[in-house]
Amino acid sequence: MQDAAVRLKNLAEQLTGAELPIRVRAWDGSEAGPPGAPTLVVRHRRALRRLLWKPGELGLARAWVAGDIDVDGDLYVVLDLLAEYIWERGEDARTLADNLRDPEVRSAARSLFRLAAPFVPPPAPREETRRQSRLHRHTRGSDKKAVSHHYDVGNDFYELVLGPSMVYSCAYWESPDATLEDAQRDKLELVARKLGLRPGMRLLDVGCGWGSMAVHAAREHGVSVVGVTLSQEQAAYARKRIAQEGLTDRIEIRVQDYRDVRDGPYDAISSIGMAEHVGADRYLEYANDLRALLKPGGRLLNHQIARRPQADESAYTVDEFIDAYVFPDGELAPLGTTVGLLERAGFEVRDVESIREHYALTLRRWVANLEAHWPEGVRLTSPGRARVWRLYMAASALAFEHNRIGVNQVLAIRTPEEGTSGLPLRARKWLSGPPGGEDFSPGDEKLSPSGV
Length: 452
Prior knowledge:
- The chain has 2 domains: 4-116, no CATH class; 140-421, Vaccinia Virus protein VP39 (Rossmann fold, 3-Layer(aba) Sandwich).
- The chain is 42% helix and 15% strand.
- The protein contains 17 helices and 11 strands.
């Protein structure tokens, strides 16, 4: 009788019609596959039951989160190989449905059922959240619940992963050798410069997280800031941090939905890594609400992850793993869709900067932080939750590196009726000059020659 690893390898190759590119180690200690290749460890036959009851990404995710499967070797390499094997084998690759027409493949499928016995559906890991019906998604209540699922897992855990900056969005790297802290500071400064922040201005930071942008804007640029978040834990952390910085007279942190902010107008709005939570059905409302909160001439900096457009956008579905374990109800849109909706709301879009490679570098640093402090990360959350974060951050790093997704900073203006944007003639003036948010209008004698 064949051992479990050989049977698993043979069954996988028969079912998919492709050679398995990694090694397999099964629960009985047996191994099969290319010598020296990274190894997928199947610790329990329960992993097969998870895949049979929920074929595809969600079944794999459940097996990973539960610890039924693991990786021995470089996680990035294994994810790259499996992505090509399962999802990206090209138009000529046969589908599972095609293969099941082959009597030998049907026989292999029956063998897989026998190997997975007893055929009882395993319970989903406790870290999995139940998805809302489309009718109830992105209400104030459902958004608060979704945000709590992702962000209220412990500030100490996020400190371990994110480092002292506590910035949970793409950093801005001068070079891959820079420190994460420096790169996050540079990102906050880039946002401040694009918004043209100057002393006396009012900034609304939508989805303010742990207060990093608010603190930077108030301390370095002398503005007054209102930060809003739906996370109680984030708000508590941000308020403590602001008090320690001596900035309580300049910064107010609210646990509030952006749709309930009513104290405009603001001179500028930053939305950094928040718009992914808004949802396609609500995005125009989001854009309209933010424009209404800006004074004429006010700027919005919208920093948002984007997916690539599909030939049939009506067939788009959210990522099952991300939706169940990471960002419930999160939705990515193509960059063109986002820009179009901002324009429909009346914004003038003036600058778009893609910083896709920067997010890959950022995610790899976060993964390294988690892996370097793995026992502590598990203690602060749970083994399953720590495994969720490691998998999603590593997989996301690869997605950015391979251009499956991107991230963009979109600068938009509520342009006054007379049409004066207030921007310098050279569109990226903010990338040069001393700190402090100097912002020169056309005709200013300081305009040239340092513009970018």
